[in-house]
Amino acid sequence: MRGYIGKILWVDLTSGRIEEEIIPDRIYENFLSGVGLGAYILYRDIPANADPLGPDNILGFVSGLLTGTGSVNTGRWMAVARSPLTGGWGDANCGGYLSPAIKQCGYDGIFFKGQAEKPVYLFVDSKGAELRPAGHLWGLDAVAAEEALKAETHTRKRAAVAVIGTAAEKLSLISGIVTDGGRIAARSGIGAVMGSKRLKGVVLAGVKAVGGLDRAASKAVSKELSTKVRKQNLPKWVPGGLISLLGTVMSKMKTAAPLDGMVLAMMMKRWGTVANNGMGVTSGDSPIKNWAGSVVDFKHSSYSRLEPDRVVRRETRKYHCYECVLGCGGLTDIKDIGRGEFAVTHKPEYETCAAFGGLLLNRDLDAIFYINELLNRAGMDSISAGGTVAFAIECYEKGLLTPEMTGGLELRWGDVRAITALVKLMIAREGVGDLLADGVKTAARKLGAGAEAYAVHAGGQEPGMHDSRMDPLLGVHFSADPTPGRHTIGSGQYYDTMQLWEKVSWAPRSGSYEKAGEYVPSEKTALKTVASSCYKELTDGAGGCLFGMILGVNHWKLFEWLNAATGWGKTPDEYMEIGRRIQTLRQMFNLKHGVDPASLIMHKRMAGDPPLTEGPLKGKTVPIEEMVRLHWKAYGWDENSGAPTVETLAALGLDELLVQEARS
Amino acid sequence: MSGKGLAAVNYGECMACGSCVQFCPFGYLELGKTGLDDFKKEYPRLVDGHRCTGCGICAEHCTVECIEMA
């Protein structure tokens, strides 16, 4: 075994036919598994301009190549489909336990096509796969549906389950796919694709063998990392508030230098992603008031209410995802919130805290816990939901949404009763919630009257809660990635901690540098963004976790694990070519489906047009069009259109794939 | 793969990632309170009423090698 199984499962929901496809070794060697295998299959098999919510779209659940091989922080799975939110390439990944379970069923991926007439779920174990009726589960929230499926299938081995909640059933374009009691593969509106296929869930209970070529070699590298991580602990006396102070200091510094990723490991272990709750505001990283405000609008008296120590005070259990050495996850007790409607919720992530905190000028942390559980159960993306609520409040403020349209709901910044009520309406698709349930781009188009000015998105996707005016390289990824608006692809900060130049010959070295230089388009910054995104695609093909990735190549040794699992003996430069190939194929997917790469460039506000007049990002503007053009060129794509050149396609061997596709 | 003993977890080394639980083919392992918990974590333990068969698959999949087939 070389990490991958060599087989995928096809499920035709229209006919009910289930069959296997053998995938040749050369496909894995060119695309890995995960997002790469997904891109290969979907590019090959989805007809041009197929309706994302129609039977011709394909939804895939794909495991990472390294999952189960003895490496660590490589247990993530990837959902792939044509996105109904952006119209282009769609993917969303998630941790938990689904990735190994896909392989334990004997497949690298499970792909669905067609549309079921009535709700169904797929059950797979080591003996085979079958579609079963799910009419009795339709209408259940994601947590209830998962529990019902586990009880109903009653497998000896603990089954891994992925389901949709009610948001995806109602085809909300900001819905996701839910696992492990509320963890979501949230982005790209991937849940709506599953809902459109009337596929309520997937239950995986196989016990087949999984592994790579040299497990001992993989484990030796893993042990080295886990030993380091175990020793990295912040002193107990360090409060979360001190981290916020660090953000203030950072915002005033004119220079930056690469941090060792182990600093991040300490914070992830202690608090999880909420470590950034206060620091994000003080440093300028967290967008405030629908990207039009700053820490001046959301002062210490507000952001201190969301400090990481306050979040973990409710934590009753810390947990790790499969194969993870960091353990940023947690379960929290929320029985005393509201009317005790929910007993427990996953610890809200930083993204959720920021999207329902500073972005809405809300300082009520309890409300964020409650909304977190509402969204997890509904299966709605909390980043997009928060961004859409911010859009709605600003439209109300500007008179584009009226009390008549909101059913009397007065939408004000920081008003948690109104915010919570609006979230409930969006989940139920009732009243004004129906207008907003598909995200800001659709809502602005329906509202008209200049609402686009307040609809902050990139290519239809509401952006992650990190400010591109603070990190211009992040702005390039927001604008140039085939899945736009993603904070997870790369940034200047990630680039510095990943330290790719230690292993990749062409990745520019990042020493101490003037921050102002990042705002000037250059070939060097373009090479940085290309290297970041190539490495991220490689990571997503391997099933890697972003938080492992940003520990840096000298700690989280992706190249070494890939060689140990596959025996390919490739150099880091050769692996980076795989990343470039995957990314280029994702770009080709967008072109095939009529998405103009230039249309993905982020909203003007995100580039500082007009610039903020107060706070740490005062006066910052990002020359995003020029930076994106240089990024395209450094990728070997046409600098004017963003289309990969004939020479680049040939160099990556993608021309052959395109010819095959044209013949079929 | 095919040990004869029982799975013994070295909790000083265990990261509580649950890989062993995921790969126990019999469903005899679970994450739960062990009395040794650090930072509110739950660690692998045998489900009440079951005995380890000694197959060794959990140890094979433990990335930090903290399971021994005693």
Walkthrough of the structure:
The complex is a heterodimer of chains A (664) and B (70). Chain A is an alpha+beta fold and 664 residues long. In chain A, a hairpin with a 2-residue loop joins strand 7 (120-125) and strand 8. In chain A, helix 14 packs parallel to helix 17 (416-428), helix 20 crosses helix 22 and helix 22 crosses helix 26. The longest helix of chain A is centred in the C-terminal third of the chain and has 21 residues, at 572-592. Chain A is globular and about 55 Å long. Chain B is an alpha+beta fold. In chain B, strands 1-4 form a two-stranded antiparallel ribbon. In chain B, strands 2-3 form a two-stranded antiparallel ribbon. Chain B starts with 6 loop residues before the first strand and ends with a strand. Chain B is globular, with a radius of gyration of 11 Å. The chains are: A alpha+beta (664), B alpha+beta (70). Chains A and B meet through helix 3, helix 7 and strand 14 of A and helix 1 of B.
Low-confidence stretches of chain A: none
Main sheet record of chain B = 2 strands, antiparallel
Task: Walk across the major sheet of chain A and give the strand order.
Answer: 2-1-6-3-4-5
Shape of chain A: globular
Mean pLDDT of chain A: 96
State the secondary-structure class of chain B. Answer: alpha+beta
Which structural class should the secondary elements of chain A be placed in? alpha+beta
Measured by residues with Cβ under 8 Å of the partner chain's Cβ, the largest interface is: A-B, 38 and 23 residues
Number of helices of chain B: 2
Q: What profile does the largest beta sheet of chain A have?
A: 6 strands, mixed
Helix content of chain A: 40-55%
* Chain oligomer state: heterodimer
Using brief descriptors, characterize the structure shown:
heterodimer; A: 664 residues; alpha+beta; 6-stranded mixed sheet; 28 helices; B: 70 residues; two-stranded antiparallel ribbon; two-stranded antiparallel sheet
